[in-house]
Amino acid sequence: MILEVLTYPDKRLYDIGLEVTKFDDELGKFLDDMYETMIAKNGIGLAALQVGKPIRAFIVNLVNENEVQDKNDLLEIINPKFLKKDGEIVYQEGCLSVPDYYEDVRRAEHIEIEYFDRYGNKKTLEAKGLLAVAIQHENDHIDGHLFIERIGFNKRKKFDKEYKKKAKTK
């Protein structure tokens, strides 16, 4: 089922996700719905908070070297904890909750996280480059933050001005 994606300035996007404690069929169905939604909206990641469920869960599915978004590469990340962040990368980010806006964001280039899968199995993942960026971006969502908070004062002022102008024309 395709879920509604909350968009800025919806206040629910600033909620903080609660730890997931039940790894059951309901969680699995919700993660499946998140995947369908992300694919339908042409995203590479989606956090539970973006579809109105304040839990610490998100998914990431990058396009592979064959330009295919293969579901076999899907990461379902629940209750993540960062073990390591190092290096620095600047990547142009966009967000399904901030449609049609892209900006350079500075993040850690290399990360290591510990998390749970949909079945409650504990996992560890090392990531670099775009995967590390996507994980940090989605983790920001479950911490109640949007990427536009990381773009610097002047770019944020410009974004707010453009957003208000666009909102008036709708």
How does the SSE layout of this entry go?
Blueprint: H1 25-40, E1 45-47, E2 57-60, E3 75-86, E4 89-95, E5 98-107, E6 110-116, E7 122-128, H2 129-142, H3 153-169
Antiparallel strand pairs: 1-2, 2-3, 3-6, 4-5, 6-7
Largest sheet: 5 strands, antiparallel
| CATH topology value | Peptide Deformylase
The domain count comes to 1
CATH homolog superfamily: Peptide deformylase
> What is the helix fraction of residues, given as a range?
25-40%
**Strand count:** 7
- The strands making up the biggest β-sheet line up spatially as 1-2-3-6-7
Mean pLDDT, rounded to whole units? 95
Keywords: Hydrolase, Iron, Metal-binding, Protein biosynthesis
Enzyme class: hydrolase
Binding site for Fe cation: 95, 137, 141
Family: Belongs to the polypeptide deformylase family.
Report what the structure shows:
- The chain is an alpha+beta fold and 170 residues long.
- It has one domain (11-169): Peptide deformylase (Peptide Deformylase), CATH 3.90.45.10.
- It has three helices and seven strands.
- The chain has helices at 25-40, 129-142, 153-169, and strands spanning 45-47, 57-60, 75-86, 89-95, 98-107, 110-116, 122-128.
- Strands 1-2-3-6-7 form a five-stranded antiparallel sheet, sandwiched between helices. The chain has a two-stranded antiparallel sheet with strand order 4-5.
- Strand 4 (89-95) and strand 5 (98-107) form a beta hairpin.
- The longest helix has 17 residues, at 153-169.
- The two termini are 27 Å apart.
- The mean pLDDT is 95.
